[in-house]
Amino acid sequence: MATARRERYRKQTREEAKAVALAQLAESGTAGISVNAIAKAMGMTGPALYRYFASRDELLTELITDTYRDLAETLAQAVADAAPADRFRAMARALRDWAKRQPDRYLLIYGTPVPGYHAPPETAEIAAGMMRTIVDACSAVGGADGATVRGATAGPEQQPLTELEAELARHLEGVRSWVPGEEPGGELKGRALRTWTRLHGVISLDVQGQFTGMGFDPSVLFEAEIDALVRGG
Amino acid sequence: MATARRERYRKQTREEAKAVALAQLAESGTAGISVNAIAKAMGMTGPALYRYFASRDELLTELITDTYRDLAETLAQAVADAAPADRFRAMARALRDWAKRQPDRYLLIYGTPVPGYHAPPETAEIAAGMMRTIVDACSAVGGADGATVRGATAGPEQQPLTELEAELARHLEGVRSWVPGEEPGGELKGRALRTWTRLHGVISLDVQGQFTGMGFDPSVLFEAEIDALVRGG
DNA sequence: TGTACATCAGTGAACGCGCGTTCACTGATGTAC
DNA sequence: TGTACATCAGTGAACGCGCGTTCACTGATGTAC
């Protein structure tokens, strides 16, 4: 089957095109991703790329789903590799490290959405899987639902929930979209949600350069936020 | 001075152009803002707009600084209008309400930065002013530096700082960029910073539509986060 | 109040540019006998 | 091992489009005497 070589070469070319597209993304944003420019950078003419992607939109979609998958895998791996007591911190740091390493990809999925562009349903599934990973990491931290390793975590004692945090927990009780399999309690879901938004808050502002010129080290802030999450549940 | 009428008309036209630009921003993003299209929507030809703006970039810059100023004023006003004990919540809610009312403007200043575009130094000053407003709101909440109204806040008792939160406070001690006038302590600055990133975390994900399909009400999450901030300092 | 001049707003044509995408075509690489 | 055919990769020309910006020009609106 010499056709296998062709197939391999095809895949290779697609990957190269996507790599170039990411470079363009970094340099001039989503709008700067251009089929013709990618082709030129690869040493071929524009129309040639249509052998590999049906349209610019398809390329963009693939860029996004690839990124989602990459990040989801990275988080899952970090959680899997860490001892239960370290899972939460490992997950949080893996998220930040990934984002700092490839800020443009982070913003591709968690930045300003491209108006009129609709992400494929596939991404919703991956996002749900990521939520599941965060829930796992949260449950390992100890507290109400974290029976798994309770006692094993030697961290600071957990604080009781605020009234409104309890209300959030009740509110989330019936939400089941992003958690396949056995359903965790509302409190755990609330913790996962807070984790997500807080980490995103620090990471996104950092990655967007909003901290530049302020004269402090964002990683210190990030570590403090991890600490607060561990303590506050 | 009949020239005053001309001047007034000029200002009016500029404002109309910016309004149309904001509509385009909402519909097709930053890249969709087009001088020619704006002019057409206003019933004139493209080049005519060059009587009012030196370039597309100048228009964009003005859009951004206007937005910064508007938000900064809104926050300051909310803080000024509220009783000391309510200041923190009032500020937080004003931020979210503003963002929900005009999501595109929020993302214009706190979303993915336009690559290659450099905001004018003026925005940094306004941002510093906003930081000052947040510091004010935080100091009214009670706690170490909040001598102003300590005792007046009937909320839940403040928690002591985590070890890493204390480290953040020490780290911020020397930072003086975003706080003109008398220098608040590192602990207060840490609280303000946390406030900013946490509120932004919820608001930005909400405004970007990342919560859609998850089946919960973002405002419940937001209120819970306010509560956690009040409690945790 | 009326005239001569200056200032301004807006037009229409034109510039060079890059975009996504189509199409007919050339070579090279594969498969079948 | 060699030939006939099919499949594929890539080219170059062309499409219509919209972009930011310039330029010379026309009218209208202002000011000065």
Chain pair sharing the greatest interface: A-B, 61 and 61 residues
> Which class best fits the helix and strand makeup of chain A?
mainly alpha
Spans of at least 5 consecutive residues with low confidence of chain A: 143-155
User: What is the H level of CATH, i.e. the homologous superfamily of the largest domain in chain A?
Assistant: Tetracycline Repressor, domain 2
Q: What's the CATH class label of the largest domain in chain A? A: Mainly Alpha
What's the overall geometry of chain A?
elongated
What is the terminal-to-terminal distance of chain A? 57 Å
Radius of gyration of chain A: 21 Å
| Largest sheet data of chain A | none
Count of the separate structural domains of chain A? 2
Mean pLDDT of chain A: 90
Indicate the percent of residues in helices of chain A.
55-70%
Total E-strand runs of chain A? 0
How much strand content do the residues of chain A show?
A: under 5%
CATH topology of the largest domain in chain A: Tetracycline Repressor, domain 2
Count of helical segments of chain A? 9
Q: Any guess at the CATH architecture of the largest domain in chain A?
A: Orthogonal Bundle
**Strand/helix succession of chain A:** HHHHHHHHH
